[in-house]
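My current task is to audit a protein record that another person submitted. I need someone to confirm that the token line plausibly describes how this chain folds. Take the sequence as given and treat only the tokens as open to question. This is what I was given:
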Amino acid sequence: KSIPEGGPEGKLADFGSEGDGRPKVGRWSVYLDTFEGACLPILKGALEHDGPLVLMIDEIGKMELLSKEFGAIMSRLIREPPSNVFVVCTVALRGSGLVEEAKKMPGVNLVEVTHGNRNQVLDTKLVPALRAWLDQGKR
């Protein structure tokens, strides 16, 4: 579900039927217009933002990459993030294109989140990385 700031709630996907005209990922029909309307203004804003910004994306996966513009902006944010933007995103475990490329890009700190470590990742990986970024004068 999408709940954009100041906007109405919207469905991102549901179990669709053949012939509904929407793109499919498995059994899911994707509301691409709703997805793009919710996320693209935020991503574009991150590219132009003044001051420090932590951008959290959940997730880069097959469904999200149906949006070519989402893929292009995320590729740019991961490859060459503005110095004032700290990007945190989840990436599908398996996939091709940006899903695979993001895991191999220089500067990417890849952490596999498992059932066993999910409650510690914030304190042991994310907070130290964010502190190091802030210590570099990104505030």
The longest helix spans residues 121-138. Helices lie at 32-48, 68-79, 98-102, 121-138. The two ends are 32 Å apart (CA to CA).
